[in-house]
């Protein structure tokens, strides 16, 4: 698993397999953020799986949080993992039965509405090289494509991919130390804005990779958006950033 030690807690991701049927394993990706007062406070939890629908993942998350409340004031992550391994089939029994991966994956896509797109605005990057490297790693780990774009003082992150992975990216972006403050100490990103989160439409270009790109002028950036079929997205959200 990956973990990120922080002054304000720890965030880490664990991937487990749970045997649902004799010939079927369900692969779960669990993201835990342990606040500084853990275990007196329950952790933040994110659940995703290619084989479950978003609704099923939300059910798993809700049940894990319910179970976590029973373990307040004692370390609980290991117990929560053991609990979901034993109880997953009961948690999702009221949803569609988990079948083979291809069938359930198509159900998940239809429930999620296909590929989603996220546009973020960052106020600044003090430790630019490290920050960029971190964003690239997260995008790669979560199989997200798109661009990290710089033009003048404007910094934008455009992401495309599975909606649950985009949600997981946002958790990482908001809870992990990705930059440094004015005194040079590591800090979390506190000045980030979600400009848009929407389903990818047929007229939108599907990016195949994640790239970092710097533009000399706003016109160059606008042409990038136009080429990707995102003219409306640009005109609605980017010009206001100049004010």
Characterise the protein shown here.
By secondary structure, the protein is an alpha+beta fold. The protein has helices spanning 54-69, 77-91, 101-112, 128-141, 163-175, 218-227, 231-237, and strands at residues 2-6, 9-21, 24-34, 44-48, 116-122, 145-151, 154-161, 177-180, 186-188, 192-199, 210-215. The protein is built from 7 helices and 11 strands. Helix 1 (54-69) crosses helix 2 (77-91) and helix 6 packs antiparallel against helix 7. Residues 1-7 and 94-112 have low confidence and may be disordered.
N-to-C span: 42 Å
Strand order of the largest sheet: 10-5-7-6-11
Number of extended strands: 11
Structural category: alpha+beta
* CATH second-level architecture of the largest domain: 2-Layer Sandwich
């Amino acid at each position: 698993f990956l973990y990120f030690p922080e002054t304000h807690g720890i965030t880490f991701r664990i991937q487990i397999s749970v045997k649902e049927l004799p010939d079927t394993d369900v692969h779960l990706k669990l993201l835990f953020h342990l606040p500084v007062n853990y275990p007196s406070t329950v952790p933040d939890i994110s659940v995703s799986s290619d084989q479950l629908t978003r609704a099923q993942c939300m059910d798993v998350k809700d049940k894990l949080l319910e179970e976590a409340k029973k373990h307040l004031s004692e370390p609980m992550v290991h117990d929560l993992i053991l609990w979901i391994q034993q109880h997953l089939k009961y948690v999702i029994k009221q949803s569609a039965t988990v079948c083979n991966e291809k069938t359930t994956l198509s159900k998940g896509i239809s429930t999620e509405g296909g590929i989603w797109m996220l546009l973020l605005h960052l106020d600044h990057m003090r430790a630019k090289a490290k920050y960029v490297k971190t964003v690239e790693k997260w995008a790669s780990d979560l199989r997200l494509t798109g661009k990290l774009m710089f033009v003048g003082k404007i910094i934008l992150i455009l992401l495309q991919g599975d909606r649950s992975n985009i949600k997981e990216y946002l958790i990482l972006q908001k809870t992990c130390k990705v930059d440094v403050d004015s005194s040079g100490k590591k800090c979390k990103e506190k000045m980030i804005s979600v400009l848009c989160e929407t389903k990818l439409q047929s007229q939108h270009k599907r990016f195949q990779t994640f790239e970092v790109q710097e533009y000399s002028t706003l016109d160059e950036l606008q042409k990038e958006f136009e080429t990707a079929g995102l003219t409306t997205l640009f005109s609605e959200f980017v010009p206001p950033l100049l004010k």
